Amino acid sequence: MGRSPCCDKEGMKKGPWTPEEDLLLVSYIQGHGPGNWKAVPINTVVMLAVGLMRCSKSCRLRWTNYLRPGIKRGSFTEQEEKLIIHLQALLGNRWAAIATYLPERTDNDIKNYWNTHLKKKLQRKIPKGHQLGEEATSVSGGHDASLSMDCQPPIPKGQWERRLQADIHLAKQALRDAISLSNTHPYASSTENIARLLQEWMKPPPSTKRTDPANSAVDCSTSTAAAAASSSLLMPETRASGASEIKASVGKIQTPLSILETWLLNESMEQGDTAPMDPILDDSAALF
DNA sequence: AATCTAAGCAACCGCTCCCTG
DNA sequence: CCAGGGAGCGGTTGCTTAGAT
């Protein structure tokens, strides 16, 4: 299977985006909605008489990581941090999946935050050989958090199983946190605002749209948002429905996650969930 | 004030997945 | 069923900026 030639095309611009390019992209998406990225460079010529000389990948990335409305920027809260750590233990380096639990953060943001902050933090806190989620995918090629202690000699079977148990416990904790956060978290409290913004967004664009590009960008940037955020709060299952740009990725993981969640939840309910069963957990708990 | 270094982050690259014909 | 192509994901790079010397 050959790679997409779009990014190799000559004449395609690379590097940091300019405000003008952002406006072009936002204007395009306001008219067409996100998706069909391949058509963006062409359609911006047709629609706006100005071509956006960026490849489809670049457009998608710019939109999802920066322009997409509802994105929260700035430092991560302790709650978010905690959630990321737990989800990383549960899912491994599947940043897109983790990002579905933090609708206002992008996968890229989370990934960067993990690599620049959390990894170090955990390494400092947790003694060698007990580092949760460290290089979780490097050995198994999958998201096996229990195999995350890969930088050490093979673990005896019994011990390995104990650690697996420990990770299951972590996963449960993460799930509970994720759910409880949705009830108390700013995300939830801002649902109304987001929904209102979404309605604004859904209004037909004014004919004078292009006369005030700055406003257009701002309105728009609070918009889609919404689509993603408002539909995505609380329940992972409903999360995917509104946001076309994350729909596909969520679709990929939705079923497994739902199964996993159901399983974890059922188990937690049945067992009433108990104290950590492994020193590892104590270590990670001590982080907070 | 100038230079060096490290941290943070935006963007790119290359791979895989999945849809469509 | 298969091949092609678009979309998405995770890893990595490289630029910018802040802090240290």
Automatic annotation (TrEMBL):
Residues 125-146 are annotated as: Disordered. It holds the Pfam family Myb_DNA-binding. GO terms for molecular function: DNA binding. Keywords: DNA-binding, Nucleus, Repeat, Transcription, Transcription regulation. Its main location: nucleus. One of its GO terms (biological process) is response to auxin. Residues 9-67, 68-122 form the HTH myb-type domain. CDD domains: SANT (cd00167). Residues 9-67, 68-118 form the Myb-like domain. The keyword Transcription regulation applies. GO terms for cellular component: nucleus. It is found in: Nucleus. SMART domains: SANT. This is Uncharacterized protein. It comes from Zingiber officinale. The lineage of its organism: Eukaryota, Viridiplantae, Streptophyta, Embryophyta, Tracheophyta.
